[in-house]
Each structure stands twice: as C-alpha cells, then as structure tokens.
Amino acid sequence: xxxxxxxxxxxxxxxxxxxxxxxxxxxxxxxxxxxxxxxxxxxxxxxxxxxxxxxxxxxxxxxxxxxxxxxxxxxxxxxxxxxxxxxxxxxxxxxxxxxxxxxxxxxxxxxxxxxxxxxxxxxxxxxxxxxxxxxxxxxxxxxxxxxxxxxxxxxxxxxxxxxxxxxxxxxxxxxxxxxxxxxxxxxxxxxxxxxxxxxxxxxxxxxxxxxxxxxxxxxxxxxxxxxxxxxxxxxxxxxxxxxxxxxxxxxxxxxxxxxxxxxxxxxxxxxxxxxxxxxxxxxxxxxxxxxxxxxxxxxxxxxxxxxxxxxxxxxxxxxxxxxxxxxxxxxxxxxxxxxxxxxxxxxxxxxxxxxxxxxxxxxxxxxxxxxxxxxxxxxxxxxxxxxxxxxxxxxxxxxxxxxxxxxxxxxxxxxxxxxxxxxxxxxxxxxxxxxxx
Length: 437
What we know:
Helix content: 40-55%
CATH superfamily of the largest domain: NAD(P)-binding Rossmann-like Domain
Distance between the termini: 70 Å
Number of strands: 14
Number of domains: 3
C-alpha cells in the first residue's frame, strides 16, 4: 500500500518514521513548507531522542518522503493516516478545524477507494463525520472506509513506545478495513485489539483520564502525608506491589502537563456534558491538578513571606524530561507568579529554554548549566527531573546558593542528605527539613 501521513507534528512524524523503519514506503505531508524543508534536510522540527537518525536513515533508503504538495500526498495513496492536532477550545472541547481541513483536502485529490486512519485524539463520533465529509465529495463509485487508531505515545520515549507498545487499537465498523490496518502493523509484533469505531475513540480518552486520575490521587495522598508525617514514597511503594494497582503513575509531584492529559481530561468532560452526564471524577482530577501545579510557589510564599528581590533559580522547564514541550508545564505558572512578586528569576533546562524564551524574553535570566543557575540564589525550585538535575550533587547545590533553600517538586534528593548537609528542603509528600542544625 501507498501510505500517507497527514501532519508532521509529534504523533504524525513519529508514526511515519517508525512505519518506514519497518519497511513501509511513507509520504509525510504538512501544509507548513518550512517544516517540510527542514525534514527534507534531515532535521527534525521536534525534539525526540533518536528521531533524527531514523529520519535520515529512512530517507537515504528511499522509504521516507516529505512534501507540502497535497496532490502528491493524497492522489495515489491507498491509506491516509490523519495525525493533526486537536487543541483545546476555550470551553474545553476539542478543536477539529485541522481535522476538517485535512478531510476536505483529501476529498479534492482522491479518486479511488481509500482507507482513512485517524490517529489524532478525537471525540466519539468524529471518525464517522470524517467519512461523511470525504464520501459526500468524491465520485460515488469510490468508497471511503474510516478506521480509528489512537496513539499511546509518551513524549521522550515515543520511538520506544511505537516498537514496544502494550497494544495497538484498531476501531472500525468495516472488517476488511480493520484487517488492512492490522497488516500494516504486523512487523511490530504487538497485541492488536479490534473494536467498533466509537469504542476505539473512547479508549484513548478513557486511558488518559485514568492515568491522570492516578497522578491526582497520589498527589492528594502526598498532601495528606505532609500533614500526618507519613512518607508518600513509602506509601506509593507499598501500594504499587498490589498488582491490581501497579506502580506506574504513582510518583507524587507538582501535577501533570503536556499536550495530552490536561487537554484530554477537559475534552472528555465536555463530551460527557454533551450527553448530559456529570462526570464527577474528571472535575476532581482537573481541580486537584490545578492546585498541585502551584504547590512550589505557595510553599515558598509561606516560607519567605515575600519573594520580592529574591534570586530564584528554576531548574527544568519542560513538562517532563526528554522533551522540549512546555505546553501546560508547571514551570510556566511558577515563573509567572515569581515575576509578579518581582523576584529575579534565572532558569535552566537542557532543551526547552528557547521555547520559554519566546514567551518571557528578557524578563528572565537564562543559565547554561545547573551550576550557573543556582549561583548566589536565595531559593531553588526543581520542576523537571532531567537526569543532570536529579544527579546534581546536593553538596554543590548548598555551596553554590546564597542560602540553601530548595523546593523540590520531583523529590530528587533524600531527606537524610538534606538534613546532614543543613539544607532547608521542601519536597512533595515528605517531611520538611526546615531548620539549619
């Protein structure tokens, strides 16, 4: 089959590159000519470990092509994967404008039977709508079949997840279309689940909603641990051995961010409201996360009284390690609050600083290392657990700062080390080390 990927964002590009790696001939299409030019030069517009090497290798092998010409992308394709963004509208619903534009564009150039595969995260019923848009606009002798194939990729490990996923979900009301897509994925040797098309759409939202629930739950437990004297890390360890619970997504912290969990929980909540269903747990997940993202700032405010004039170091800006994605990142709210308090803010992140610079410009100081960021700082905030941040010696942290006061949103250091080194140390769900000995 001739396969086209519509959209070279995170999901589309990783999907196209990995499909070419297992031997398929892939054309990736994007309306952004600058992005396509960059990809044709062998460079990736997004940061994902290992992605550029795969792009270059498969381009050289002749299996991977990039174009901004829709006719070249769609006219001869047997299968088109839609992988464009569905950002959040003001009311929390998914914005489907890019999906609609792709469907309309496909209908202009396709003059044969075609299978459409939707990887974008979309509300229940969207795939049927996509099928109608295209079917109504192409010659009646041609048939459109639509398949829902949601992605379950984690930024920073998306290539690994593609080749080592837990499952591949194929949702279709056309048995033959489902089998065609299964054939595409055969080289990955991953369990495949066939469902009806609406169930596949719901699986994506339900999965992300449940994972978000685990994060918010353990963060609520962490807050209670702080009040009772328990240690959330020991609590989570004890919970995680229970196979019914599992140990993943039980790390207390300062809330979730990124392009998926915040957007998808709100979209699922909006979908429920459309069907006049009050999804109470979802609202609690969202409320808890909003509060948790301000934990570092509120604790610092409580400790210092005023942050005016303080030199504050913010370590980690991306919403998680191994990505430059700052969408819904806790760092952004922290920085905004610190600036409003007229603190002098220095930031460091190994990858994401340029993205933050586009927002704050000269309002911030940008360090080239952890050591530079903390130099003579009154307070340090640890926001993202990059390897080099986690492994930065606490001794150097203490010696480099003007006054060793640390608010750690990722529990990078041990309480024993903080106490031994006379560091004022505040972490999540653990006892505060609040006095120099």
